[in-house]
Amino acid sequence: MDELRSFLSRPIKSDELDLLVLGEAMVDVYHEPISTAEFKQLGIDSGGWYLFDPNCENSLKLCEKIRKIPITKKIPGGCPSNVAVNIRQLGASAGMITALGGDNNGNLFFDHLEDNNIEKFAQYFNSKTNPFLHVLFDETGERTFFAYTGATPQINLDFPVPKSKILFTSGYEVGKIGLPVVDFASKFDGIVAFDVASAELAKDNLDLFRKMLNYTDILFTSKLEETYLFGDRPDVNYELSCHVKKHGDKGAIISYNEGVFSINADPILTAQAGVSCEDGYFQNTNGAGDGFAAGFLYGLLNGFTYEDSGSLASKLASTVIMYEEPFMKKRSLRVDVHKYDLEQKYKKELEKAS
Description:
Elements: H1 3-8, E1 17-22, E2 27-31, H2 36-42, E3 49-51, H3 57-67, E4 71-76, H4 79-90, E5 94-101, H5 104-115, E6 119-125, E7 132-137, E8 143-148, E9 164-170, H6 171-177, H7 179-186, E10 191-195, H8 199-204, H9 206-213, E11 218-221, H10 223-230, E12 242-246, E13 252-256, E14 259-263, H11 267-271, E15 276-277, E16 280-281, H12 288-301, H13 306-320, H14 333-353
Parallel strand pairs: 1-5, 1-9, 2-7, 3-8, 5-6, 9-10, 10-11, 11-12
Antiparallel strand pairs: 2-4, 7-8, 12-13, 13-14, 15-16
Helix pairs in contact: 4-12, 12-13, 13-14
């Protein structure tokens, strides 16, 4: 067992968490589908990703137009939050550092953490709007995103870091909060896991993201994110203990000190539409990558090999897509059975070794 797996699988201390996430308190606001003509009236393209600028008149006008489109539901989300919820469903402990705005979305996110037994290290900004993400759909189901960072940039990270085996954060936080996230990671006395999460943010903040890599032990990227980070400097060694390259329905490639291997995507991820299992029917792929990250980290926390951790990650990712929510909102039989089989395997290996 290498140094990383040995550290993560040691018995947890009484004042320590398995996982601490640093993330924005994002609330996804879903709207009824609109036509191509209505998208033209908004002045935006279907399938795009837009950031709300409160200092821009055009952005303010667009936000007012979007608010008039009927809302179907609001769901708390965000990459780090989704990872925390998923790992709690698997049975590990988790806490979240975040900034909450003083509005209904802030209250909704607070209740979300409470309902999922996630320890809160929250800062409250009553005069600020909570982060939100408007999700628009065209007639084909293509999604368009309109995000507002709200209270997120106001967060103060100059305080003692809570004790945890793993600190997890994403490119959304590095891109929107900036250098304080990198400084926070540099002071963390444990394993730092970083999911780039956004190719656009990586492209626009390349130097900052590369600084973050200096303090990263476990890196999660997509193919495009990897290209932006390493494309012009393939020989640079960031001393990563593990690099997980998530390729969606093509599976994943995982590299670590002792080698490189591939993980096949679960058949449900490759089939998608019309597929069902005991958890329900395929809904969407939103949050599948966050599910993969949570399953992988949980495996390492329990002494699984990188290969078996990847296997559990794939099972969890293919379960998340059965929910409207971007996380596993309840325990899953198919995940529990797979997890139990792996745990029994390692229990027998430990008994043999002793």
